[in-house]
Amino acid sequence: MRRNKIFRGCLLVILFVAALFAVTSFKDNGKDRDKAQWKLVWVDNFNKNCLDTTVWGYMKRGRDASRKYHSSNPDCYAFRKGKLIIKGIKNPDMDSDTASYLTGGITTQDKKAFKPPFKIEIRAKIGSAKGAWPAFWMMPFVNENGWPKDGEIDIMEHLNYDRFVYQTVHSAYTKADRNANPQRFTKSDILPDKFNTYGVEVTENDVTFSVNGTETLTYPRVEKDSLKGQFPFFRDWYLMLDMQLGGSWVGKLDPADLPVEMEIDWVKYYRRK
User: Fold this and answer.
1) The domain 41-272: what is its CATH number?
2) pTM to 2 decimals?
3) Coil, strand or helix at 71
4) Contact (CB, 8 A) for 153 and 138
5) Please, which residues have CB within 8 angstroms of residue 68's CB and are 6 or more apart in sequence?
6) Secondary structure element (H or E) that encloses residue 152, with its range
7) Which of 78, 130, 137, 238 could form an S-S bond across to 109 if both were Cys, CB 3.0 to 4.6 Å?
């Protein structure tokens, strides 16, 4: 009897170890499969101390509050130790530009399209200031029906001194105050004074956001006639990286906090294998 108990005990230990190994292997294989489905096809490391003008242009000033200070003024940009610096500053020369403040922003509009299924990752350290609104976002490469019908993907938006970022999708469906079913945005915790990697994956079935390799939100396609316009995201996109100052969402700007800057280490573009 004692011998049988010992045998059963050993058998249970063996089965437990085998099960643990199987679970671990499954998790590892899951990670491998995730890595295996994407192939890096393009990267900008900003190591040349100048913009690649075949890919990037400067964002133009717009009427809306978020873009009213955009400028190609060299004071809004710098290259430092292999990183692109984008700034928000007080205007040093109001004789040539009457805007009180200037902000930097670069875009691939009309130059480089990101074709789904794709994954984009951006490693950056974002600066904080009252009224500062740095953002990484995407708009349709071909504007067929206008905003919001054609959609918008906000990979990262940071406000003021928050210790989190917003990651959001916009469409005609979400514009109709449908913030849930499915959930369209999330707040992801970060350390603003550290480098973080912000990501988005766009496939035919969903948009998935991530921070530092951890998925934060998946917005799925929902196949229902009543949800027309719910998923306009399976299309070509262009990318924007910019600093914004002031506006109704971020709130009033404090000039004493300027200049404010963000450092962008690299941008990576993956396609599905």
Assistant:
1) 2.60.120.200
2) 0.86
3) coil
4) yes
5) 61, 62, 99, 246
6) strand 152-157
7) 238
